[in-house]
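A reminder before we start the practical. When you read a complex entry, don't treat the lines as separate problems. The point of joint prediction is that each chain is placed relative to the others, so the output describes one connected object in space. Small molecules and nucleic acid strands, if listed, are placed in the same frame. In the example below there are two entries. Take a minute to note the order of the lines before looking further.
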Amino acid sequence: MEAAVAPRLDALWVYLAASPLLWLAVTLVAYQLAFHVYERCGRNPLANPVLLSITFLVALLSATGTSYQTYFDGAQFVHFLLGPATVALAVPLYAQLRRVRSMILPVVAGLVAGSLTAALTAVAIARVLGASLPTQLSLAPKSVTTPIAMGIAEHIGGIPSLTAVLVILTGIVGAISARTLFDAMKIRDPAIRGFAVGVASHGIGTARAFQVSEEAGAFAALAMGLNGALTPLFLPTLVRWLV
Amino acid sequence: MVSAITWLLVFQLAGEILARGLSLTVPGPVLGMILLFLTLALRGGPSEEFRTTSQGLLQHLSLLFVPAGTGILLHLHRVADEWVALLVSLVAGTLATLAVTAWTMKFVQSRTGDGGGRGPPA
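Here is the predicted structure of the whole assembly.
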């Protein structure tokens, strides 16, 4: 009995391993499971669903000896949606237009200062601690939302897939630390707190800000969009000057 | 929904063509976002259907990062070799960015009075 089942399972695995369906389905299932865990942990930023999904998938791919290329042949259908999702960011950006008019100067000043600080500190610290050039370049766009950061990394000679992970980790660091830091700095205005979180830690910081207040979340979403639009304009030039 | 997705792809395509045609440093989807933003400003906002579809797509934004993030599989050696620099850069750089952004906004606000309850300057 068992001897008859084993070859059939082999044939099944050969079929599944060659079809994009398996890894597409596994990606979605992994994310659903991770999101469930995140909810069960009271949406604790440490149980970030993206981080959990990636950890699970890396373990699974390693255990089954599957190459990233094979995995990506299936998962690319999800990955492709990053492009239209980036375009769609224009919609929340437009919705915040009125609110931001009342504090246009602080917003512009904070955006420019924060955007430059994010890129400069990331590259400078990594360089001082002896990181290789591709690692430094992969870190440079770490505060920008993932689809845009990956585009920048590719353009300036970084490693887009490494950048994607560094961006996610940056988001988690910002989401965990913002409240304590702002309390210590005596920054109380929810607009300022939200905007700073959005500049430093993009979508993950924005999700966190929305949990604190509607106003903080709105300014975080705005900051994420503006930083995503501004950084690709100056970073390639800045990097050419730094490297 | 189909019409909204069509428009999102058309704006992305326009952005890609513009970026490549003019050899710009800005990624195509970002140009698409800027073009869409300008269009919304001219039109006076998105249609209900367009807004709902965009919201749906953005609600599941974090799922879309998973395939790319799994690419860390290709860089496990690099992370193992350079983890100290990566960790310090991530933590210290992010804290510095939070602090500089918030402090700059507070400073400018106190100098100009912007956002202190007054309306926009004409």
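Discuss with your neighbour: Chain A has 13 helices and no strands. What might explain this?
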